[in-house]
Amino acid sequence: MRAVRIYERLDIDGSLDDAAWTRTRPSEEVWIQTLPDAGMPASEHTTIRVLYDDENLYIGAVMYDSDPYNLIVPGLEQDFDTPNSDMFAFGLDTYHDRQNGFVFVVNPAGAVFDAQAFNDQRDLSTAWEGIVDVRTSVNDSSWIAEIRIPFATLRFNPVEGEQVWGLNLSRRIRRRNEDAIWAPIPLQFRVYKFSMAGTLVGLSDLPRGRNLWVKPYALGKYLDGVRQELSATDGAVGLDVKWGLTSRMTLDLTVNTDFSQVEADAVQVNLTRFSLFFPEKRDFFLENEGTFGFQDISLRNYRTGSSPRNFRLFHSRRIGLSSTREPLPIVGGARLTGRVGDRLEVGFLDMQTRSVDALSDGSHYTAENFAVARVKGQLTRGSSIGGIFVNRQGTAEDGSASFNRAYGIDASATLLQNLLLSAYWAKTDDSDPIGDDTSIGMFQAAWRSTIWNVSGLYKQVGDGFDPKTGFIDRTAVRRYFGTVGVHPRVLRFGIREINPYIDFNAYTNLRGHLETRSVQLGTNVSFPSGGSFRVSVSDRYERLSEATSIGGALVATGEYQWLEPSLRLSTSGSRALYGTVSFRWGDFYDGSRTSMSGNVTYRPNEHVSLNAGVQHNDLELGGTSFTADLFSGRVRYAHNTRTFFMAFVQYNEATDELILNTRFNLIHAPLSDVFLVYTERRILGAGATNPVVERGITLKATKLLAF
Fold this sequence. Notes:
Layout: E1 4-5, E2 32-35, E3 46-52, E4 56-64, E5 87-93, E6 101-106, E7 112-118, E8 123-125, E9 133-138, E10 142-150, E11 162-173, E12 178-181, E13 198-204, E14 212-224, E15 232-246, E16 249-257, H1 283-286, E17 311-312, E18 330-340, E19 344-353, E20 368-378, E21 384-394, E22 403-415, E23 419-430, E24 439-448, E25 452-461, E26 471-472, E27 477-486, E28 489-492, E29 495-509, E30 514-526, E31 532-544, E32 548-550, E33 553-555, E34 558-570, E35 577-588, E36 591-602, E37 608-621, E38 624-640, E39 643-652, E40 657-669, E41 672-683, E42 692-702, E43 705-706
Parallel strand pairs: 1-3
Antiparallel strand pairs: 2-12, 3-4, 4-10, 5-6, 5-11, 6-7, 7-8, 9-10, 11-12, 11-13, 14-15, 14-42, 14-43, 15-16, 16-18, 17-26, 18-19, 19-20, 20-21, 21-22, 22-23, 23-24, 24-25, 25-27, 27-29, 28-29, 29-30, 30-31, 31-34, 32-33, 34-35, 35-36, 36-37, 37-38, 38-39, 39-40, 40-41, 41-42
């Protein structure tokens, strides 16, 4: 596709009626379906025009539709629910390295989803946000999207003369469950599979701007509760800076960093022997997260048996959050990310926290410094090798500070388009080691075609491996995983695809003695409407070498084996009322477990969303019968694409604790916000001496200044 330079002003109003749009002819290519009829022409026509001037890239898209007044729009919020929406999407590989780039998605109401994509679809960072101006309109024959992206939002190589970017375009017609693509790719991939993208040509002499963004904030807050010795009113100011040092290198600075507007964590019930993973939600750490990723790989449409929830050598939640997930003060920090030459990607991060005399549990926190250095080199298309160094260092004035360091190398390769190979080796060094073997190593191979899904993994974790700035679910083990599955397309009897599979998963200790084994046989069935059904049965074995607390009950030493059936049904998210329900039952260690969870959402229009969830666990363990239940409710209201309200309430029956988090957000200018946040954590039991554990209200304002 060719972009055409313009010199006149272009109004972004969703109509494409400016004279500038007549300077280029609309694209006439036939788009190809990936769903439901892979390889067939799209059922509706789509035309695209691309313009640019000295400051902006413009995309004009016309999505013709025989029934445009039945478009499905799930919401108006930033990063809306793309799987359940009509949408137009495009990916820009601005360096044309066929690996990394930017993704933008627009729905018919003008909401925007934007993200950074890394490693040829392997990683997607949805926290990235750029300045994007979008207007849409709907008429009797189509819906139209008019999009302006400042070149300052993107990163590219400002060479003299013409340059080439990678480009792909996608469209979803949700009521037909149809996905279509401009540059055809297999159905298991998405629009940001840049190794298979088309090209955008015609761009020449692009600007070399300063790319300096300064974003100050000011806030005031009131806090009380058990975690506060006295009720207190406080205020703070801080600053975030983003500076494009070169076209390939970006420096981010943060001073007196604050995350008070971030949504509360979802409460979890732990019925395992191991630590639970809580995801990062803070935007500063999520942006460019893929650059620092050194972890188990989780891939869309691949059954790999492992994910970043099992292992991350660097997990940014260790910075500025205590082990009980209590915020710790961050003095500030810096992050430098970008490229050196065409093939070398680099990232450096340094953050400093401040001491806290007394946390809510009475413990003391000593100031620490966190430093990360990451380097990754692209070898050939789809192949890379990299290294990482992570240092966590106490900065106590008496010089007695402890330290924890981690370092490793990783590599990945894509062969024959469908074969993915990945491996890593890492080691930790600690001032107070917990074991002799402080290393971890993994090798994985995965094959995914339109029919077959086969993968295998081997991992060994030493007894002394301890990444205190990372996450690992279990140590002192060797892990073996394998899966074989098929994905035949049915397209009959109301079924789109059937996916039978078998998984084998085993853990031994470092002496080779079996500790955990599961063999799971299951089938996933997906329907043309977008719903799905899964049935499985697992043959599980666990050996406990010592009495272990599971769900709060003490289970004795011994060997345990049981069968665990499960069912899961999800209805189509394109409907106003949809949800998911799952069941699991059977023996469980020396007793039994019956678990049920359900989640239902009512979305009458794009402005309102109501959600309710429940998780019920009925257990008998260690001779004790008990329940472990969670309840949650969420309300979202979007007045338009700039004004939002959210309320999230959770109740944990085991602790008799109620958690409330409400947030009002006004986007008063691009990437500039006003937040009003109220949080409360309360014990509901009649015997609670101080029922309010913590309570606070925060007013925060930010303003982006672009130079």
